[in-house]
Amino acid sequence: MRLEIVSRNVAHTVPSPKVEAAEVTILTADQIAEVPTNLEGYGGRYGFLPLHSIAALAIGTGMRRGEICGLSWGAVDLN
User: Fold this and answer.
1) d(Cα 54, Cα 64) in Å, to the nearest integer?
2) Contact of 1 with 9, CB cutoff 8 Å
3) Do 57 and 68 contact (CB within 8 A), yes or no?
4) Which of 23, 25, 34, 74 has the most CB atoms around it within 10 Å of its CB?
């Protein structure tokens, strides 16, 4: 439309999807303490998965799943 190649934007005729707000459940201190125990032996058909460090990172920093998946070593400063 900015380049005046089309006469109208047909996307304006479709209503935007509604996003339902979901209530976030915060873990209690007791539930956080149970996380390492609950992860013991987890791995399914893939064998051992290093979920302890991922869970510790998520709980300790509050990072979301997408943020953890996008984390690279260049963004890590252990000092």
Assistant:
1) 11
2) yes
3) yes
4) 34
How far lies 12's CA from each of 1, 9, 15, in Å?
12, 6, 7
DSSP states of 16-65 as a string?
PPPPPP-PPPPPPHHHHHHHHHHHTT--GGG----HHHHHHHHHHH---H
Q: What is the pTM of this model?
A: 0.57
- Cα 4–7–8 angle (5° rounding)? 115
Please work out, in degrees rounded to the nearest 5, the angle formed at the alpha carbon of residue 30 by the alpha carbons of 65 and 34.
60
CB atoms inside a 10 Å sphere around CB 64: 10
